[in-house]
Each structure stands twice: as structure tokens, then as C-alpha cells.
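Hi W., the NAP complex you wanted:
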Amino acid sequence: MTNQHSSGYDRTPVSVIGLGPMGAALAAAFLDHGHPTTVWNRSPQKADDLVAKGAHRASTVIEAVSAGPMIIVCVKDYETMHEILGAAGDTLNGRVLVNLNSGTPSQARAAVGWATERGAGYLDGAIMVPPPLVGHPGSVFLYSGSPGVFDQHRQTLASVGDPRYLGSDPSLAVLYNAALLDMMYATMNGFLHATALVGSANVSAVEFAEHALGWFMPTVVDSVLAEQAPELDKGNYPGDLGTLEMNLNALEHITQASVEQGVHSDQPRLMKEIAERAITDGYGGKNYLAVFEIFKQATREPPT
Ligand SMILES: NC(=O)c1ccc[n+]([C@@H]2O[C@H](COP(=O)([O-])OP(=O)(O)OC[C@H]3O[C@@H](n4cnc5c(N)ncnc54)[C@H](OP(=O)(O)O)[C@@H]3O)[C@@H](O)[C@H]2O)c1
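Structure:
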């Protein structure tokens, strides 16, 4: 079931189900790396360019699943995957399903049971790059689930990017995905709000970025986030160099400055409320990172 590539490696046949921007990029990368590639998409015309490059267009889901040992699914979500593969009958038996849709941890856990009932190996994955970066060696792809399935197919998965295995809990890939995107959106919003704040005094984004990014990397990323991660694991937040009470003062000033300058103030206000919650819980004399204790808990209604 493999194809000898000019590199000397055997190339496992791969079936790619779903040819949106991401699925099409995955199929193109498999083709570029010499994998015999079968494709299926609800709207079949999206396979035209891939067929021109050498892909085989399956006319049914069963034909796509039957074409080889490994099926990559990259559609809108888990519900769509179940809907599509419901038509595969028992053809999944003995094959490996790699699911690269976005979703939630409970959906990933349920998908393992679903695949196991059909006799298929299962790996859950998360793609941490946009379609143009698929196929580049440094592009991060996260996987979780069966270590045996991952080890067996690591080389094939490396055709689309750098495969990183997170552990046997199948929900880890989508959980990391949510966590990394959480960090990305929060950081982007921080920069955008800050740029709007100085923009209220006619400072351009370019001018601000020069100061802000040069300050942020060494002062926040390197000396707080990277250095303090072990202290988060220990729950150790000494307040000798600055307390949460002192930081609340800063958050109040950011909120008030936003109001005064006529820019949106919900984002700093929410950060202020989280710090206030931590102080109510007794962390006022600790350093700012003690808000981690609040983030570890489910959201509580404010006291009435
Ligand atoms: N694009 C990115 O930058 C990116 C990055 C990381 C992860 N992802 C993830 O990759 C997955 C695919 O993303 P995408 O960008 O390719 O586009 P998408 O819009 O999320 O998914 C498009 C694919 O889903 C199929 N689909 C949607 N509803 C369907 C249905 N009811 N029945 C059958 N097929 C259906 C589409 O088929 P038709 O072509 O027939 O509509 C197409 O193949 C998503 O889970 C996304 O979150 C995307």
C-alpha cells in the first residue's frame, strides 16, 4: 500500500476528505511529497486543480475511504465529519482516521469512541498555521490520541508540517488549539486596544508598534511569561516587588484613561474586575500572576 518516492521513502496513499482552503492545501502537500492522494468533497469541482496535479477524485465517500490506509478529514466541524463518514459503512474498519477539524475536547473524545466502534484507529489533530504554510517543515501540527497510530504515521504526517505529539488523551490537540488561539486573540486585542488608546492622541499604529513591541518582548514575554511559568505550577506569587493591589491601581487608570480619551473601555474594565475578584479572594498582597487562581475556576456570578 505504499509508493516509492524519489527520496527513497515509501509514500503511504492518503485520502483527503474536505477540500475547503485547508483540506485543499493538505491534499496539495501530500501530492507534492509523492503520496498517492485520493480526494473527496461535497462540492466535487473543488477537486479540479488537485486532479490536474495528479490526485484521484473519488466519486463517493466509500470510494475515498477504501482507497488507502489513512483518511484525513478536514471539514467545517465534527458534526459534518460524522455526517459525511456515516455514509462510509464498515469501510473504515482497519484504517486510520486523522481528524483535523476544529472542535471541542468533548467532541474529540466522542470521536475516538465513534471510530473505535467502526474498527478504525484514530488520531485527533489541530493545524496551527494558515493554508499557505501547509507543507512547510516548520509549520506546527498538533496531535493527540493513540501513540501507536501516531508513531506508525509520523512520517506521512510530516508531509504537511511538523507533527508534534501531545499525549494519549485525544482531547489535548483541540484543547491546545483553543488555548493557543485564546492567547493569540487576547494578545491581538491588547495591542489593538492600546493602539486605539494612543491613536486618540494622533499617534500612528506604526509609531506605537516601534515602542510597544520592542518593550513587550523582553519585559513581558521573556522576563515574566517564560520565567514565571514554573512559579504558576507551584502557585507561588510573592508580592515583594509589586502587589495585585498596586496592579489594580494601574488597571483603574487604564480604564479611566480609555473613558477620558473616548475609546472603548470594556476590555480594561473586564481585566480590572478579574483583579478585583482575586483581591476579594485574598490575593491582594500577592503579585499580579495570582489572577491565575481566578482563571482556573469556572466563572462566578458577581455578588449581588
Ligand atoms: N483555513 C484556516 O486558516 C484554518 C486553520 C486551522 C484550522 N482550520 C480548520 O480546518 C477545517 C477546515 O477549514 P477550511 O478553511 O478548509 O474551511 P471550512 O469552511 O471550515 O470547511 C470547508 C469544508 O467543509 C465542507 N462542508 C461544510 N459543511 C458541509 C456539509 N454539511 N456537508 C459536507 N461538507 C461540508 C466544505 O464542503 P463544500 O466545499 O462542499 O462546501 C469544505 O470541504 C475547519 O475545522 C477549520 O477550523 C482552518
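Residues 18-23, 41-43, 46, 74-77, 80, 83-84, 101-102, 127, 130-131 surround NAP (CB under 6 Å).

W.
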